[in-house]
Model the fold of this input.
Amino acid sequence: MTQNPFEALGGAGGFDMNALLEQAQQMQATIESAQQQLAETVVEGTVGGGAVTVKVSGVGDLLGVDVAPGTVDGDDAESLADLSDLIVAAYREAKAQADQAAADALGPLAGGGGMPGLPGADGGAAPKLGF
Done:
């Protein structure tokens, strides 16, 4: 018997596997383009009234740390600990901006708004990407 196994999904013309594959390939190209744009995006987090500025790519990679002159006394352990805290805080601020940029760029594609009728593996919405 040479019956089409997809016939039950819509009969003749009701389910077009080639169209579905083409849509998936277009979505993949869109996602890759958005990811490339994010990799080229640079956001900054600044704390301590400009004492520390951290640059992060749109995908969360740390690109640089700028410390304003006079921010820290290199001979004082407490001052160095404060610098560490400032760097962490500036990174978190920049990373939050990078995460928002990723959500803006990929949100409709990564947050379950992709292909209709195809939820995440758990039967709910597709999981968000962790950028």
User: Anything to note?
Assistant: Confidence is low (pLDDT under 50) at residues 117-124. The CA atoms of residues 49 and 68 lie 10 Å apart.
